Description:
- The protein is mainly alpha-helical.
- It has five helices and three strands, in the order H-E-H-E-H-E-H-H.
- It has one domain: Bordetella uptake gene, domain 1 (D-Maltodextrin-Binding Protein, domain 2, 3-Layer(aba) Sandwich).
- It has helices at 3-21, 43-59, 74-81, 96-103, 130-139, and strands at residues 32-36, 63-67, 89-91.
Amino acid sequence: MSRRATISMLACFMMLSIAIGSVSAAYPDRIVNLIVPFDPGGAVDVTCRFLAESVEKALGAKLVIMNKPGGGAVIGQTFVANAAPDGYTLLACTSSVVTNPLTKETTYTHKSFQPIALYCFDPEILVVPRNLLEMLADEGPSGSLRTGLVAQYG
């Protein structure tokens, strides 16, 4: 993780503690749980564990990573959606927080959550086997197959 991303994450958690601190001057006065809705050892879990030490220093409280995998992240996401909105239960989310309510029966939508920090930029792309484009080009009329790349940066 880049230094810039780590600093951004710390700044967001400090803003969270300031915002919640206006409600409760002692925040955080107990353990903060970060729910990872995937199995231990995966990319989201490893990223969160990597950041935990820095976040603990910024918050001045213990940050516990809790893995709640299952249902393509629905179990962990439901757990957080049903948690008290007190800043002590956080969710490490991916695009599945948007796609799960669209493709599965859930008790929440993406609007059930309030983003507080971008901790990882994770682009999602479609790929095909290399020879598929050549095979399609051979099958179709000459010049009918068009490929391209659409990207937005910044």
